[in-house]
Amino acid sequence: MLLGNHSSGKSSFINHVLGRDIQTTGVAPTDDSFTIVAPGPQDRDQDGPAVIGDPDLGFGPLRQFGPTLMHHVQLKIRSQVDSNFLIVDTPGMIDAPGNYSGMIQNNNTDGGMTGSSHASSMDRGYDFTGVVSWLADRADVVCLFFDPDKPGTTGETLSILLHALSGMDHKLLIVLNKADQFSKIHDFARAYGSLCWNLSKVIPRKDLPRIFTMCLPVEYQEKGKQQAQQQQSQSQSQSTNESTATNATNDASTIFQNSPTALQDLLSAREEVVAEVRKAPARRMDNWITGLHDAVAQLKMHATLLQDIQTRYNQLYWDKKWQEATVAMAGASVTALFVLYGMDFWAGSTDGGTAISGMVVAGMGTSTVLSTGGMMWYHGQQLQEWQALASKQEELFATFQRTHGRAIQEGDEYIAAVWHRIRPSLALALQTEGITSLARVTPADLDQLQHILKEDIPRLRRLASPPHYGK
Question: Which Pfam family is one of those matched by this entry (predicted)?
């Protein structure tokens, strides 16, 4: 999957990798759709509803993002392309006025979006961030393109990096494209520094990931510039466009023409990126196993926390029931004793003693019923309050500390990351479904998940890994 600002070279890169002019290129935004490029026996295009409705393509879950997205998806099947994988080209990211303000400040601990960042995601008529996150989670390689004109200054791009691509470092390639357009070395230094500065705002680490500084072959640059010139002025002739594009390219690449070593570095970086993209099919199995491990780890923690909550709730529930049963039994016992021994005494001691004895028995029985019923109502209220309290962040964190105390003490960062990922979904399940409506988690369930993590997934890793001396 390719992401980036408009005019960052995504479409040109696709044409270069596949060896065909498939995507339209240009400086201005040329496409507002998610374009899926796939190899096939003959050229064919499909619109969004057909793509999402096809059960064999696997894009059906995108329907959850609404009808607007469905009309902004297209499939391009092309023959004679040099690939055996799908490439997803995304719409160029452009900021509307004021969208970037507060984006960083509105980032919460759950990794969600609030305020202006959420409004920005809906500017296209659908949840752009959610769609990108869904596609990136299923992609084997994600390329994030930047260009010299906007080196990381587009707020939507940084928001996507912060909210949609978090936790995907192992398959994310950050690319500064069109580096050969710099005519002065200090312009290149400023653009590269600006990109690093902006990335540091959304990547909370001292060491930034590698940035692939590259350029595309001149032929693709010239085609893109020609199309841009045609978009700007239809009255200009084709020959004028070619001359302008060629002169601009030659002027912009002066520092690299004078330094073959620097130009070779750009070409080498490009070949590395292309090689990583072409390795996507080989990484499919590794990414699938990684996704399986993460999913099972999250499910296991979710089940462990839920089991602890259910256990404590059941203990409280049966404590309350024992108290109610004790009160009911005590009242019934006292009433029975009075019936056995007290009624004869009252009946023989005074006139009308039998009536009085009956009233006493009735009163004692009524008191027992009322006290037991009142206690049941009060305990029901307490249980409801306890269920509501159990879904609060503070109580969930206390549950996490009880169940994973050793991992916390050892500073297990992976467990902490899994906790932050499952916390919102667990809280939502407790709030919407309730503890009593959720399936009961048994020790056998946890043992089975543990077996998958410790036995089955390592076995899959061994089968999928290439031969090495460690085997």
Answer: Dynamin_N
Tell me the pTM. 0.71
Query: In the numeric block, which tokens belong to residue 413?
Result: 């960062």
The angle that helices 443-451 and 280-337 make with each other, rounded to 10 degrees, is 170
> Contact at 8 Å (CB) between 71 and 49?
yes
The alpha carbon dihedral of 384, 387, 391, 395 has a sign of positive
Q: How far apart are CA 410 and CA 57, in angstroms?
A: 44
Q: How far is CA 27 from the centre of its chain?
A: 31
Each residue of 167-215: pLDDT tens digit? Answer: 788 899 999 988 888 878 888 888 888 888 888 888 877 788 889 988 8
DSSP H helices, 164-212, are 185-202
Backbone angles phi, psi at 173, to 5 degrees: -115, 120
Residue recorded with tokens 């993460």: 294
Q: Determine the Cα–Cα distance for residues 160 and 176; give it in Å rounded to an integer.
A: 17
> What confidence category does residue 25 fall into, taking pLDDT thresholds of 50, 70 and 90?
confident
Q: What is the pLDDT of residues 205-258, one digit of tens each?
A: 778 888 998 888 755 445 544 544 454 454 444 444 444 333 434 444 446 556
Reference 446, options 310, 287, 312; nearest CA is 310
Beta bridge partners of 74: 35, 47
Cα separation, 379 vs 186, in Å, equals 73
- Which residues, 6+ apart, have CB-to-CB distance to 391 below 8 Å? 427, 430, 431
Nearest Cα to Cα of residue 182 among 274, 259, 273, 242: 259
In the chain, DSSP finds a helix count (H) and a strand count (E) of 19, 8
For strand 73-78 and strand 211-213, is the pairing parallel, antiparallel, or unpaired?
A: unpaired
Residues pairing with 75 in the sheet: 36, 46
Bridge partner list, 176: 146, 213
